[in-house]
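Thread title: Can someone regenerate the structure for this chain?

I was given the following input by a collaborator and told the matching structure tokens would be attached. They weren't. Posting the sequence so someone can regenerate them.
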Amino acid sequence: MPAGPPAPRPPPSTLGLPTSGPAWWVLAIFVALLTAKVSLISIQAGCTVALVVVTVGLYARDRTAGLVAVWLTWLLAPFIRRIFLLSEPLTGTEPLALAPFLVTAVIVGLEIQQVTLSKRARRMILCVAGGYAVGMPMGFVIAPPAAVFAFFAYITAAGCFVIGYREAKEARPVLSRLMIAIGPFLALYAFRQYYVVPLPEWDSVWQKAAQFETGGSPEAGRIRVWGTLNSPGTFALVMAFTTICYLTMRRLTPWAFVGLLTVLGALALTYVRSAWVGLVIALIAIVLVSRGAALKRVVPLLLLLVVLGPVVFGGSTGQAIGGRVGTFGSVGQDQSAGDRTGASLALVPFGLSRPGGVGIGQAGEATRLGGGGIRVTDNGYLSTLLQVGPFGFLLVMIALVSTYRNAWRNARRRPAGLDLLVFAVMTFFVITLLSGDAFYGFGGMIFWYFAGIAVRRYELAEVPA
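Best answer:
Regenerated them for you:
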């Protein structure tokens, strides 16, 4: 029988943190001294501690403010890191790179205290945790730091399921409202990166230090923009996600339409084809699930893009974007696409032959912490399979398929508003996982956050039956 509404719990202000009196002063002085001490060792470490403290403090006073601080940390911490790089060299382990994960993990821990999950929801979280745990023994043997960090990162992302689960009754979740508000400003900074030469000093230093492979633009003398984030791929995910948030608004005002076009412009300047494809498929999916009702949003947007695109992106930029789009018609002759597909097909049998995987942390960004591994797999499903083996992969996929099925059923039942948004976002990430590990980092946080909303809304809809 489906679970009923969560049992009421104390509001965030009663989390056990003192709000006044001597205890508050003792805590405040202790935290201030700790932050100062850590800052003397490393300014990045001090900033990380400060971000965690401020976020927890905001959450204790107001849940929405605390969640806004969490998402802003993901969006702005990479930019702050670049500022610090002007005075500190890039090292293999930067404390500030850990800040978004720490902030999210702390808030997830506090959220768990505020909600009663249904048995079904708990099983889904345990499936994900169990799947990644399968890869821990081998990963810990090969490279303990990489294994511990990767497991922490993936489990923190899965923990965002709890945050979304609590927001299922809201008209719009906190994250979508935030992205609608600040997405255009992030996009404008990306325009600054692309059109104004030279790059800001902090961006130039980061481009040389990070050495990401996707920094070059098809247009000579330009870059693929990464905004305030750390790579064009991540920025493209965020811009595409923001586009979906705009298109599923209850009322698309003229100002919102301007913001939407700005975000789409920044997405185009990332030149990340996988994000373009994922967005197009997500839009097709919402048109189908809404039985054509979403066409009244999608068609005017497409027509406007056809009219304004050549005007806004004229000259060499328009030719570069057009050339990038043109590659979809010749995928078979695309060397980079062919290389990635060939590598993926070759690694699938290898991953299936390892019951416990090659070890969690042996694929993706966590490989920077040691142990070798394969840093770039260009496929999130393959990355999971390699790290945790077929059994662990199956557990994670069970949770993914179950939550996505709930999102689809919710959208079929009510193809508008939050249900349509959740279905579109999850469809986008299911597709983009084919070209990168969207389970890791901000992408993973977004996916499991909306998975939690999907599951809870499905449970609430099934209770009357």
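The CA atoms of residues 218 and 320 lie 6 Å apart.
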